[in-house]
């Protein structure tokens, strides 16, 4: 047994060196954490002060195992070098008895580390992110100045340069950024099932543009909510990728937006305390990424159901009627002899064709002509089944308002596309009539292409799709592609939560394990030199931290395009990731047992 006087003599030295090392390491790591934001995003003086104060709790926690290992190596190295350890052994005390103060300190540091990691570090790590993104104008300007581009969902903004005006806020309190020679590219996904298939839709370019940014909330909370951007273009030009039915025009001054984007602070398990992690693990449907995928699946199914209903009405009854709350209606009709509707992505088309009687007469004349040309030894010449200037336009679209007679638009072919409207219980429908004419009061006006976008209310059956839950897309009757898509997000979230929980516990336990290693190394190397102690203690600490971080990253690394069935793939990266998280502690614990065993046998 070790006496009380000797215990406190060693424990005070351990505590003094530990606090000094921990404070120095935390300060160095806090300043190191500022390097990336300073160089990539730019920070004002107020943000620098806040970030330093917010970095300290996290960096203090992350430096605990290194500081504990350093302190035990120094103190027990000095005891051995000054022959105090020999005196203790001569008094009948074993090496394990002399190491008791280190074990007590290791337990206390491990408990403190676990409490900080579970409750305090997540809160202050989130505050760091909120501070970084509280000034979006400075962030956007810095990104443009370094990379000359910045992406917001489906929109990418390119510019030669960007700067903040003298008055960085307008009269509405919105932040402002000025862009030089900007180019705005909009990307669309024509097929919802193919998430990686994206094509450019249109481009905006101008000599100069002003970005107006509105962030909800006050102070640092502005970095958490949604962000709304409006780009004001001066002397610009809109350039569509496809010119059919599109508009190319100069714009002296126009606004692009407002563009609603999600919070730049993404959902991350490192921002969650232990209670939030537990709640989210048992209910992964509350995760932001899972919610986003579920919302996309619901929107896709609502669009598909609307398209199916409209196709059924046109192919069966010959017309589809869209009713609105103010009594106004739009009527889309096709004649009986017209081609049937053909599904096309999240929409459908009615292709151009000639009437049945024209096709019959053309087929008979075509056979006779082919026979005559073959008798003369000539190749048959292709011919159109109908005159390009034919008046046969079997598709009509009309807006009807009670008490008014409005023109009818007739077309040779038609395309209809459905998109989310952004308003509850409505869909955005875009009807494009190709090779069309307007007929009103006995007059016909040529119009090569007619486009009519409008928001149409959902039927009760289609609106009810919004009540679907994650289990509806992971049930045995669900589509395999849907199950694969949302199942991947659920699996990734669950793996990240488990990896985060294990890494916190492993990190806390490493404080105790590394104390055991440091105690044994200090006794064996018989040196109280700070530089030697740091060199000896650095390797096992680095091994533990590196393996914890690697295992945590690996656990949530589920491929985006997963070819394996999600059911058979379940938790495959998690097993290896958890193994790495605990490997460092296991190796160091084995090292400590071997070293202390050798000392005990001496």
Describe this entry's structure for a reader:
Helices cover 50% and strands 22% of the residues. The two termini are 18 Å apart. The longest helix has 46 residues, at 480-525. It is elongated and about 120 Å long. It has helices at residues 4-40, 45-62, 64-81, 84-90, 95-98, 100-132, 136-147, 274-282, 288-316, 356-375, 460-463, 470-474, 480-525, 530-555, 566-569, 572-601; strands at 149-152, 155-158, 161-163, 175-180, 183-188, 199-215, 227-240, 249-261, 319-323, 329-334, 342-343, 347-350, 395-400, 408-420, 426-440, 443-457. α1 runs antiparallel to α2, α1 crosses α3 and α13 (480-525) packs antiparallel against α14. The protein is of the alpha+beta class. It contains 16 helices and 16 strands. Strands 1, 2, 3, 4, 5, 6, 7 and 8 form an eight-stranded antiparallel beta sheet that branches. Strands 9, 10, 11, 12, 13, 14, 15 and 16 form an eight-stranded antiparallel beta sheet that branches. A hairpin with a 5-residue loop joins β14 (408-420) and β15.
């Amino acid at each position: 047994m070790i006496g009380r006087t000797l215990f406190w003599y060693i424990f005070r030295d351990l505590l003094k060196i530990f606090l000094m090392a921990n404070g120095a390491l935390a300060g160095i790591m806090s300043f190191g954490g500022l390097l990336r934001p300073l160089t990539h995003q730019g920070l004002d003086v107020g943000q620098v002060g806040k970030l330093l104060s917010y970095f300290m709790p996290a960096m203090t926690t992350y430096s605990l195992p290194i500081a504990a290992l350093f302190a035990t190596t120094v103190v027990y190295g000095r005891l051995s070098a000054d022959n105090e350890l020999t005196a203790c052994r001569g008094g009948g005390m074993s090496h394990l008895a002399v190491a008791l103060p280190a074990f007590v300190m290791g337990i206390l540091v491990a408990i403190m580390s676990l409490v900080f990691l579970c409750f305090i570090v997540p809160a202050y790590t989130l505050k760091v992110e909120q501070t970084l993104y509280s000034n979006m104008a400075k962030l956007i300007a810095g990104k443009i100045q370094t990379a000359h581009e910045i992406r917001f969902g489906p929109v990418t903004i390119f510019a030669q340069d960007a700067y903040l005006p003298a008055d960085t806020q307008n009269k509405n309190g919105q932040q402002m950024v000025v862009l030089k020679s900007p180019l705005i590219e909009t990307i669309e996904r024509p097929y919802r099932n193919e998430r990686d298939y994206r094509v450019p839709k249109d481009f905006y370019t101008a000599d100069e543009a002003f970005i107006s940014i509105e962030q909800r909330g006050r102070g640092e909370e502005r970095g958490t909510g949604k962000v709304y951007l409006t780009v004001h273009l001066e002397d610009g030009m809109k350039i569509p990728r496809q010119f059919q039915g599109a508009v190319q025009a100069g714009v002296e001054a126009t606004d692009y937006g407002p563009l609603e984007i999600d919070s730049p602070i993404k959902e991350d398990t490192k921002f969650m305390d232990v209670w939030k992690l537990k709640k989210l693990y048992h209910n992964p449907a509350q995760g932001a990424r899972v919610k986003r995928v579920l919302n996309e699946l619901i929107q896709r199914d609502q669009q598909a159901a609307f398209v199916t209903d409209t196709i059924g009405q046109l192919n069966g009854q010959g017309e589809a009627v869209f009713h609105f709350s103010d009594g106004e209606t739009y009527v889309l009709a096709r004649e009986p002899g017209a081609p049937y509707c053909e599904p096309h992505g999240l929409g459908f088309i009615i292709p151009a064709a000639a009437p049945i009687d024209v096709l019959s007469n053309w087929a008979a004349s075509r056979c006779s002509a082919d026979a005559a040309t073959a008798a003369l030894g000539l190749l048959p010449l292709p011919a159109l089944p109908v005159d390009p200037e034919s008046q046969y336009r079997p598709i009509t679209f009309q807006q009807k308002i009670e008490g008014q007679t409005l023109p009818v638009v007739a077309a040779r072919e038609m395309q209809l596309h459905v998109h989310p409207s952004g308003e509850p219980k409505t869909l955005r429908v875009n009807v494009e009539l190709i090779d069309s004419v307007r007929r009103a009061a006995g007059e016909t006006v040529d119009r090569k292409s007619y486009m009519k976008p409008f928001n149409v209310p959902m039927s009760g059956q289609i609106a009810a799709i919004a009540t679907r839950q994650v289990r509806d897309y992971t049930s045995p009757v669900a589509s395999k592609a849907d199950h694969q898509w949302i199942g991947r997000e659920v699996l990734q979230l669950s793996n990240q939560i488990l990896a985060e929980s294990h890494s916190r516990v492993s990190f806390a336990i490493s404080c105790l394990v590394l104390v055991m290693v440091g105690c044994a190394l200090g006794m064996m190397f018989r040196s109280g030199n700070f530089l030697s102690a740091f060199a000896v203690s650095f390797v096992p600490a680095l091994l533990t931290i590196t393996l914890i971080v690697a295992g945590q990253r690996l656990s949530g690394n589920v491929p985006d395009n997963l070819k394996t069935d999600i059911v058979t793939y379940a938790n495959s990266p998690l097993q290896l990731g958890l193994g790495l998280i605990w490997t460092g502690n296991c190796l160091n614990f084995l090292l400590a047992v071997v070293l202390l065993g050798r000392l005990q046998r001496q």
